[in-house]
């Protein structure tokens, strides 16, 4: 068993490109995802027109005191600047041109009462960010002015918000990080072990090794140990990047989440070994990606399925990443202990054990007889 | 020829089908210690299937093969068998030395013995000075020599060699066959498949295989006279024609 593990490590040393890919590619993927998720918190670009006049705060108001009923565009723009990029435009026509050309996401036209807002609805993420920014700016401007007249009443309109499991600065990357960690470990280990084992089969070395007294279980065991070592190094690197560099929360500590990540890699290894028996080429191995990997991206916790159909929620329980993702979120974000997440961790081990056994049984195709 | 040698491997009524293709059809054959048994026959006649049954990587549908009295497939007895597959089956991303050490370990040797034995065989195969190089950088001839060394690594008693000299230059081929004769002289049994008739001449005994059956056995001279021809090439051609007619 150890001889096979050692042989696998030597083979990887003899193929530095693959070794570099195994260790660097996951880090690169995390880097890219981090950039995308962080960049996803976009700043809307808002064109403002006719800032000279004054506007009504919202619904029609014909109150007698102009200083109370009317907002100055400046006070709204001051608020808008906190969340958005402001383009001051001289007239409505050129503002509309900006919107059509995509250099602005929304227009606030202060010439009418109430102010007219036009939004580019093509991209929901920019339109909703623009609407939110504009509504907040108006609301805050109104509240600030109103506070001068009825301070305590308007102060009570702003409830104090308290947080558990994080703070107001918890980003979507922080929440994704645990599942991302599990997913990346799973993906790279699955592909690596699957293709290595497949190559062993198609090149004939598997058959040749079975013309020696090597047993099936010690071959699979050797694979688990050899690739387990690689996966552990990979896991430590990925976790260091996510937690150490990108500062995702890790309440339970490095060791606890490492224990879960390594369990994930063992499950992925076992699944890769088992499924490679059903592929006859590297290309066919890649065909398992839509079957094994993509559903796990969709159903295993990256997206919130709480309001999804029942069958999708049921389906998520057949994937090891669901359990691993939950365990890692509980550990890293909610500060639970390994003991608390034991049921989920045990489920991941269950997957590993089942697929190890299946892989050994599947090898009966090549090695008849006992062991 | 040594018909009195100890029985090393025996096949009785082997049958194997792959879908509609009959690979082995009641094939029976045995090999004794001290002889070089040559298997000749056209491509697809079942030579490789037979050889794979002997080393336990193919299970027959019917009949049985036993090696040193153990019915195959049997894992334990494989440490007494040296196998050379038809294609050069080597780990390209390992050095020659690491390939040999790994297989020696699989055959049950401890690491120290494996290493010593691997170095001996590197020397035997004429690969000294190249033992640390990756096998992917090896020439065809070097790969063949290393494959033979791998079959020898655990000093087995029975050699099962599937086309050991394909793609080997004439000089190296001479060396290989001299080695086989030396091994037989030391009491080992050798089964080798071949397409090359002057190699067949060097065997102690030949088995002509056609359509998964043994259609004739005997020394090269016996086979020639049975077919009334002066060289084995003609036997091969005759057998192929007769087989196709029957």
CATH class designation of chain B: Alpha Beta
User: What percentage of residues of chain B falls in helices of 4 or more residues?
Assistant: 25-40%
Are there runs of chain B of 5+ residues with pLDDT below 50, and where? none
Question: What is the distance, rounded to the nearest whole angstrom, between the alpha carbons of the first and last residues of chain B?
Answer: 31 Å
Radius of gyration of chain B from the CA trace? 18 Å
Helical residues, percent of chain A: 55-70%
Strand order of the largest sheet of chain A: 4-1-5-6
**Structural class from helices and strands of chain A?**
mainly alpha
The quaternary organization reads as heterodimer
Strand-pairing-aware structural class of chain B: alpha/beta
The SSE order of chain A reads: HHEEHEHEHEEHHHHHHHHHH
Low-confidence stretches of chain A are 54-68
Q: Tell me, what's the shape of chain B?
A: globular
Output the radius of gyration of chain A.
29 Å
Largest interface: A-B, 26 and 29 residues
Find the count of extended strands of chain B (DSSP E, 2+ residues): 10
Largest sheet of chain B: 6 strands, mixed
CATH superfamily of chain B: P-loop containing nucleotide triphosphate hydrolases
- Tally of DSSP β-strands of chain A: 6
* Residue-averaged pLDDT of chain A: 84
State the domain count of chain B: 1
